[in-house]
Design brief:
The structure is a single chain. The protein is of the alpha/beta class and 216 residues long. It has eight helices and nine strands. It has a single domain (3-11, 22-215), classed as Rossmann fold (3-Layer(aba) Sandwich). It has helices at 3-11, 24-29, 51-56, 68-78, 110-113, 130-143, 171-178, 196-200; strands spanning 41-44, 61-65, 83-87, 90-95, 98-102, 118-121, 149-158, 182-191, 205-215. Strand 6, helix 6 and strand 7 form a beta-alpha-beta unit.
Length: 216
């Protein structure tokens, strides 16, 4: 799986992972992180999620997204005309308290985003195969200061061999793959509906997990 996979998904509008409203896990559990309104929030692999609007009403929020099609759709559907500029190797667009960096998340450096107080991952970790997951964790470790808090949502399913994306990530897997650089607190686990794509791959059981994660 490479960048062309996700670029093609956006170009052909195969985005069953996109929600038409803010994620209920975000609304329920974000206050648990106890972030102040002056702390900036990072949203990796943000797509055109409406979660950016919800977070942007509370914090300065920066999303990072590979597909320019997704970034353009976010602004078009929100009725906003952003200010655009270059932050090599990214293209930056901003309106109000929401900005999006278009480019490869693995190329992200601290200078691109500045101090980050919190992060939100609903669909990044589960979207990546194991090799890219390791690079993703390295990037988070590189750009987040100790004490940075985040909300992470994963799913796990049976049979796990059905494959992804989205990939099956159990609580134990998340803790192992984040490693010693992060402390992981499981906030909630529950059975969840099985989306059509996974159902067609033979998945019969699916659970959703919500975690508070702190950079050590």
């Amino acid at each position: 799986m490479d960048a062309s996979f996700w670029l093609d998904r956006w170009a052909t509008d195969r985005i069953g992972f996109h929600r038409a409203e803010a994620n209920p896990n975000l609304l329920k559990w974000w206050p648990h992180l106890e972030l102040t309104e002056n702390e900036r929030v990072l949203v990796p692999l943000c797509g055109k999620t409406l979660d950016l609007h919800w977070l942007g009403a509370r914090h300065s929020t920066v999303g990072v997204e590979l597909a320019a099609h997704a970034v353009d759709a976010f602004w078009s559907e929100s009725g906003q005309t952003p200010t655009r500029n270059r932050q090599p190797p990214f293209e930056s667009s901003q309106a109000g308290d929401v900005s999006i960096l278009c480019g490869d998340f693995m190329a992200l450096e601290h200078a691109h985003v500045g101090p980050i107080g919190g992060f939100y991952d609903r669909a990044a970790f589960i979207a990546l195969p194991p090799d890219l997951r390791r690079e993703y964790v390295k990037t988070l470790t590189r750009i987040l200061e100790p004490g940075t808090r985040g909300l992470v949502v994963t799913i796990d399913y049976e049979p796990a061999t059905a494959g992804g994306p989205p990939f099956s990530i159990s609580p134990d897997m998340l803790s192992t793959q984040l490693g010693s650089a992060f402390a992981v607190e499981l906030l909630e686990s529950r059975a969840a509906p099985i989306p059509g794509g996974l159902s067609q791959r033979g998945v019969t059981v699916l659970n959703e997990h919500v975690f508070a994660v702190t950079r050590g």
